[in-house]
UniProtKB/TrEMBL annotation:
It comes from Thermobifida alba (Thermomonospora alba). The keyword Cell wall biogenesis/degradation does not apply. CDD domains: alpha_hydroxyacid_oxid_FMN (cd02809). Pfam families: FMN_dh. Its cofactor is FMN. This is Alpha-hydroxy-acid oxidizing protein. Keywords: Flavoprotein, FMN, Oxidoreductase. It comes from the Bacteria.
Length: 391
């Protein structure tokens, strides 16, 4: 080592892991927005267990394996990815940072992966298509209003989105208590204290007032200022529990490209989805935001992968916060993972650059782990690379 020091004015290092980005994000956005990002449904048991269930597994270390140049490539929905981690759809991303969905998409493509654009995005389908270099994927809620659903599918197709992710775990909106307690309802309820809390995050408040990226622009296509509440109302009025298999059949018949169904936990549902012609499933419980007390996704994954993995692409999301978590998910049968909150932490903490940094950290962690596990390619991961931890 050559001698000498590097000199910095403060000792604060940039976040080194996803948890560091989480802490930074929590300092940057007002409590109302933070509650929206972080909270789960009801008791938040599933939210917590999505994370803790990864501790049920140990990674197997192997030595003297000459593992160099670890290969992380995979293919999802016909798109080659350089990283087996894509960005999950997150609604209202513009509340975290004005770069919003466009920042998520640009960071994903810079990182060799893709984003699933939420129906409830704060940049419209067309804005994201115009602002990006690669073709991304679109998430659709099967709205009660078929004309609205059809128009979103058409707009996504015409804008070049290549795959459709139909989210089926929101027949009703989950009971998210932290959100409700902090006034993130319809309309959001402001109090002098909440306004002051926002003002105390001047960087966020300034950008919010300047860019106002909180309108769900797909739902009020010409909407700009003043229509945020109106757009969220369109969304909530169109949520319906009155959707069934025939609706999925109808969506399948209207969409030519790859179709994934997101929000599947039961292998019987996964099988039926694939029988109906879906190309893949996302094992997901919506990040613990919908039905509380369901299984954590990493527990549900093996049975789904076993049932349909030979004829459909199986993805998983929920609680993935490190390269080690990604390795476990892939070993248990996922072709790739999606990350929701980690991407939003990056966005809130540093805009598109923050998201890219979170994805870089996950990549580095995964490469380092696979090197020490003696696994040359993430696609080779299999159950024998793991040991169950004693319960
Ligand atoms: C979501 N999620 C979600 N899913 C979806 O299909 N459409 C959506 O609009 C949203 N919106 C949304 C907002 C926020 C703030 C969060 C945190 C999540 C769920 C998301 O796609 C994904 O399933 C979970 O986020 C995965 O869990 P982790 O990675 O956040 O633990």
């Amino acid at each position: 080592m050559t001698g000498g020091f590097r000199f910095r004015l403060t000792g604060r290092t940039p976040p080194l892991d996803v948890e560091g980005w989480r802490r930074r994000a929590g300092r940057r956005v007002p409590p109302m927005v933070w509650a929206y990002i972080e909270n789960g449904a009801d008791t938040e048991r599933t939210l917590g267990e999505n994370r803790s269930a990864y501790r049920d597994w140990y990674l197997n270390q192997r030595v003297l394996t000459r593992t160099t140049d670890v290969d992380l490539t995979t293919t999802v929905a016909g798109t080659r990815l350089d990283l087996p981690v894509a960005v999950a759809p997150v609604g209202l991303a513009g509340a975290a940072h004005w770069h919003g969905d466009l920042g998520l998409a640009r960071a994903a493509e810079r990182s060799g992966t893709r984003m699933v654009l939420s129906s409830a995005s704060t940049y419209s389908i067309e804005e994201v298509a115009r602002g990006t270099d690669e073709r991304h994927w679109f998430q659709l809620y099967p709205w009660g209003d078929r004309a609205l659903t059809a128009s979103l599918m058409d707009r996504a197709r015409d804008s070049g989105f290549t795959a459709l992710f139909v989210t089926v775990d929101v027949p009703v909106y989950g009971n998210r208590l932290r959100e409700r307690r902090t006034g993130m309802g319809l309309p959001p309820t402001l109090t002098p204290r909440r306004v002051l809390q926002a003002a105390l995050r001047p960087r966020w408040a300034y950008a919010y007032l300047r860019h106002r990226r909180t309108t769900l622009r797909n739902l009020v296509p010409d909407g700009t200022r003043g229509t945020a509440v109106e757009s969220v109302t369109v969304q909530s009025e169109n949520l319906t529990a009155d959707i069934g298999w025939n609706d999925l059949e109808w969506i399948r018949s209207r969409w030519d490209g790859p179709l994934f169904v997101k929000g599947v936990l039961h292998p019987d549902d996964a099988e039926r989805v694939v029988d109906l012609g879906a190309d893949g499933v996302v094992v997901s419980n919506h990040g613990g935001r919908q039905l509380d007390a369901v299984q954590p996704t990493v527990r549900a994954l093996p049975a789904v992968a076993q049932r349909v993995g030979h004829r459909a692409e199986v993805l998983v999301d929920g609680g993935i916060r490190s390269g080690a978590d990604v390795a476990v998910a892939l070993a248990l049968g996922a072709r790739a993972c999606l990350v929701g909150r980690p991407a939003v932490y990056g966005l809130a903490g540093g805009g598109a650059d923050g998201v890219a940094e979170v994805l870089r950290i996950l990549r580095e962690e995964l490469v380092r782990n696979l090197t020490m596990m003696g696994v040359a390619a993430s696609a080779d991961l299999a159950p024998h690379h793991l040991t169950p931890a004693p319960r």
